[in-house]
Amino acid sequence: ILKNADGGNFVIAFAIAAAVGIALGILNATLVYRLKVPAIIITIAMLNVYFGLLIYFSNGEWLYGFPDWFMEGAEVLSFSGSDGYDYGLNLPIMVLLASVALTSLLMNKTRIGRQIYAMGGNSDAAGRVGINLFSLNLFVYGYMGALAGIAAVVQTQITQSVAPNSLMGFELTVLAAVVLGGASMTGGKGSLLGVILGVALLAILKNGLTLLGVPSYWHTVVTGLIILLSISITALNEKQQAKQEA
């Protein structure tokens, strides 16, 4: 679609990508709710299903040669300082800021944000107090699907290409960043600020390993150890809290 949309714009690109992401997210949410299987199992399984279908329909071909508006329209705001340096805000930064602001507002200032925490903490109790768990699952997975679709457009704009396997394997990095940021694998705990700090810390760590000349396969080892350490610390804290409450 992007390759043929000479008169298009980023709004249309984001809308199409978000719509596809919402549809796939809703499918994931339905499976999680109906099958009563841990969400991480369903999402990883469906990730492989989607990836296989993508390779099948695209034949694994890379896409290049996008319209001028897509290749040159990355700079959203541009202003120069007294030193003459251009302090422009590009598309990835603007999308990041907008996503963080919207998600922060949703999780901290709205009723649905409190319901999401309640469902993550204890879904049975949340259902008993009248929260529609199915609708809430549809919203959460649809929202995350929309963000994933928008992120795909940003990734395409950065690299000026579409590679079907470009981000495969990054799910481990995402999991490490989220867990490192304080989010609980069992749900109900975590904050947006913590996740942002987890992402930043992991990026700094990997960049440091690269600058030190550490082979890339050791990056995966470090990521796995971070996940293991973070989960272990969280589990120990939960056990101590349970003992104190008892």
Structure, briefly:
The chain has helices at 10-35, 39-58, 68-72, 91-109, 111-121, 123-128, 133-159, 170-180, 192-211, 216-245, and strands at 75-77, 89-90. With 246 residues, the protein is an all-alpha fold.
Rg of Cα set: 20 Å
| Amount of beta strand | under 5%
Low-confidence stretches: none
For the secondary structure, the number of strands is 2
Description of the structure:
By secondary structure, the protein is mostly helical. Helices cover 71% and strands 2% of the residues. The protein has ten helices and two strands; from the N terminus they run αααββααααααα. The protein has helices at 10-35, 39-58, 68-72, 91-109, 111-121, 123-128, 133-159, 170-180, 192-211, 216-245, and strands spanning 75-77, 89-90. It has a two-stranded antiparallel sheet. Helix 4 (91-109) packs across helix 5 (111-121), helix 4 packs antiparallel against helix 7 and helix 8 crosses helix 9. The longest helix is centred in the last third of the chain and has 30 residues, at 216-245. The chain is globular, with a radius of gyration of 20 Å.
Describe the SSE topology.
Blueprint: H1 10-35, H2 39-58, H3 68-72, E1 75-77, E2 89-90, H4 91-109, H5 111-121, H6 123-128, H7 133-159, H8 170-180, H9 192-211, H10 216-245
Antiparallel strand pairs: 1-2
Helix pairs in contact: 1-2, 1-7, 4-5, 4-7, 8-9, 8-10
Task: Tag the structure with descriptive keywords.
246 residues, 2 strands, 71% helix, mainly alpha, 10 helices, 2% strand
